[in-house]
Design brief:
alpha+beta, Rossmann fold, OB fold (Dihydrolipoamide Acetyltransferase, E2P), six-stranded mixed sheet, five-stranded antiparallel sheet, 9 helices, 20 strands
Length: about 350
């Protein structure tokens, strides 16, 4: 078993609190992604799990064992860093074998584990080359193979694809998902790329300013963000937020936004008061576009048109606000053209505007 449990983990650098009493359970053989902007504490948390940085408070457990005070070599982990960190004077074979040599593994085991990792990463034909003789993507594969060659129950990865170009990242992302399922390890993966997070993770922990704001499945984080920050960070384009105000009438509470009144769901009426300011969160793909007026439609004007091949992305002015809308590639719009938008009411995410928190 390789469950990882963090209990109130706190790390301080000088006057900066990098992680604020973070608690998190990463299940055995789960692929957990730590996602957030630069400086949010995700790499600090990963290095704390690895034992590369001593934490200032809290406890860390791996497989039920308290490893808080253990050095990295005794935690039975493998780690892949953002930089390739391969040794230029060693062949690919010796680079992959490096961790095994440090553990004084017998030559037979070294050969077997190197061959296993090389086949997994599809670089068996590169074993006698030096790093300067292979491409950047192949060097990244060498770094991953070196980590996987050492028998480990936990694999930690710190933005391993960030140095690759877009096409290679797409290829490597699919490869990583395949091979990490094959090795049956518990994986903690750090990234600031929300596409990587959505495509790779079993769960995503979204971080900001040293705290975890939401930890859930990719689909739930995307469809039901816990705050305006999460909704605005996840998705391409990010979630739209329309400012609204709660009004009361005989049929219950309604929210007026963009010149249209929306009925507030009965399930959350008890948590909202008349006069409260709210955000209506809606994804670009959940907005229907029309070229003529209709009931419950927002009136706007096309501001920017971005053809993206499979679809067009429109930026639409609705009053003083800008929202993003996806349309079919064959729908042609011009900047300044009037446009009408209907929101899929069942897809609206209701949030309190003062706190930014979603209303459950």
């Amino acid at each position: 078993m390789a469950e990882i449990r963090l209990e109130s983990v706190r790390k301080v650098f000088g006057k900066v609190v990098a992680t604020h009493d973070v608690s998190l359970v990463i299940h055995d053989r789960e692929f957990m992604v730590l996602l957030g902007p630069s400086g949010c504490g995700k790499t600090t948390l990963l290095r704390g799990i690895a034992g590369l940085d001593a934490i200032d408070a809290g406890r860390i457990f791996i497989g039920g064992q308290d490893v808080t005070d253990l050095p990295p070599r005794r935690r039975r982990i493998a780690m892949v860093f953002q930089s390739y960190a391969v040794f230029p004077h060693l062949t690919v074979y010796e680079n992959i074998a490096f961790g095994l040599r440090m553990r004084r593994a017998p030559d037979g085991e070294v050969k077997q584990r190197v061959q296993f990792a090389a086949e997994l990463l599809q670089i068996s034909d590169l074993l006698q080359r030096y790093p300067a003789q292979v491409s950047g993507g192949q060097r990244q594969r060498v770094a991953v193979a070196r980590a996987l060659a050492v028998p480990s129950e936990v694999v930690l990865m710190d933005e391993p694809l960030s140095n690759l170009d877009a096409l290679l990242r797409l290829e490597m992302r699919a490869e990583l998902k395949r091979l990490l399922k094959e090795v049956n390890a518990t994986v903690v993966y750090v990234t600031h790329d929300q596409i990587e997070a959505l495509s790779l993770g079993d769960r995503i922990a979204v971080m900001k300013s040293g705290s975890i704001l939401q930890c859930d499945t990719p689909l739930n984080v995307y469809d039901y963000p816990a705050s305006d920050f999460v909704g605005g960070f996840i998705g391409s384009p990010p979630m739209n937020f329309l400012a609204g105000q709660v009004t009361a009438n005989g049929s219950g509470l309604r929210v007026r936004a963009g010149g249209v009144e929306f009925q507030l769901p009965a399930a959350i009426e008890s948590q909202v008061r008349a006069g409260a300011n709210m955000w209506l969160g809606i994804r670009a793909e959940n907005i229907e576009v029309a070229s003529a007026a209709g009931d419950q439609m927002l009136v706007g004007a096309v501001h920017v048109v971005e053809p993206l091949g499979s679809h067009n992305l429109l930026t639409v002015r609705v009053g003083d606000e800008r929202i993003k809308v996806n349309t079919h590639a064959d729908m042609v719009f011009q900047p300044g053209q009037p446009i009408w938008l209907r929101l899929a009411v069942d897809k609206i995410r209701w949030l309190d505007r003062e706190s930014g928190q979603a209303i459950a």
